[in-house]
Give the backbone structure.
Amino acid sequence: MIQLSKQKQRIQIAVASLAALAILGTLPARATDDPHITQLAATSNAPLLLSTAPGAERFRPVGKLMAASHCTATLIAGEGPVDPQRPALILTAGHCAAHDLGDNNAIVDAPADSAWRYTPAYFIDTQPAHTSFAVERVLYATMKSIDLAVMQLDATYGDLAAVGIAPMRLEPTATTIATPIELTHVPIIGVPDEERYLRHSLCTANEARRLFEDRHPWFWTSAVPNDCEGVAGGTSGSPVVLRDRASVIGVLNTTVDESNGCGSGRPCELVEGEGMPREGSSYFIPIDSIARAFTTDGIFDVDLLDPGSGIALTRTGHWSTRELVADAEGNMHPAIWNLQASTQFDELRYKVGFAQTLDCAITEGYSAALRTTDQPLINLPTPTREGIYGMCIVGRTNGDSDWQKPEYASVKLRQIDETPPTLTPLIAVLRETEEKWDVYGATQPSEVSSVQIKFGPRATTDCDVDEGYHYADAHWETLSRARAPWRFCARGADLAGNPSPVTWRDFE
């Protein structure tokens, strides 16, 4: 929860006409072409990149990727001479390979869908020369700690060279404040069909941050904020290069949309133990781990990457909770982690700390060995101080002397949130006629996650009284004009259960 004010608010809105009742700024749904970057990110633009522009030749390996979603991808290779007979590889974002990648798993050497295509040199002024190549395999894709994917084409580097496409190289780079960068991408959301080609953004990057997003939530230990413009659905997977250079330092991951709080489409940085959105920012993931997976002879070795095969963890309930929670009888108890561990490992060890500083790779701080079948993480108490915590979990199978590598530990976040939202639910009218109003209560994205309502005669309905509130059992409530005036009340709660202020509207 980002808003920290705890002063109770009440909003009274008198409604006299349909125009006054309508909610005009309803957020659009997340774009189906790219489930990870929202439509509202396309509030600014980046100029189309012509093939004849100075420096454009550097970006011939960048193109449109039609995979699990509409993305951007780059032909890449390891260091040293490129073998023209070797299958060509492209780099993109992990979420471009699957819509359902979890926070602790990976795809390793799996066949790609037969419809997936990569089209390099996707300039608007070279359309007759565009050549598409089939994607044959997903060699690696993950959203665990990073958001990166490497795919193998059904074509060789020689085939790409025949149409004038040479691979870009990878350059691990630690950015600092105001590092000049360039982003080349193919956004589509909010862009006319005839202009959905390579665009170019000149921008600056900052220092890497720890970032989380959505309700899993995904957790990226090194994400670089930047001010690149024109980031929208389709930009995912785009290469980031240092200004006037030609080597890839990162891959575009996500952006902060125009909403509230932390959640879907609202990635947040970890700052002093809490989540904080950097308004207007986008983020890229450094390519260091992918660069290390290339051997000295240019082979991409997936065995050098986290296989995502550690202990699978299933959470009961939301990731955010209050310090004390009620049981079925209404008795209050300390919050617990509520994590069920898979049993492919016989034993597990764990450690807990603030997510902002927790380092799973350091062996210090892990618990003694515990039997997985005892499910020791379900009723494990959470820390009591408000903030966002992480848990690292490693496993071992009976008979093995070695534990899972701690740098490949499974990780889950848990938020202790005692701060009520300052926003109220929304009260909206679906339709208005001469006989009635159809009214409903709505959530506020990332802030008010559930809504209770009640309504009745204005003279006798007190919105501050608990009696009568209920979760809506229909999409809307019908208020008869003949029985007006009415008062419609709404109150909500965030994911942790902290109550929102009460709001109401009068209908007369």
Observations:
- Residues 336 and 380 are 5 Å apart (CA to CA).
- The chain has three domains: 10-27+420-507, 39-300, 313-416.
- Residues 157-161 form the longest helix (5 residues).
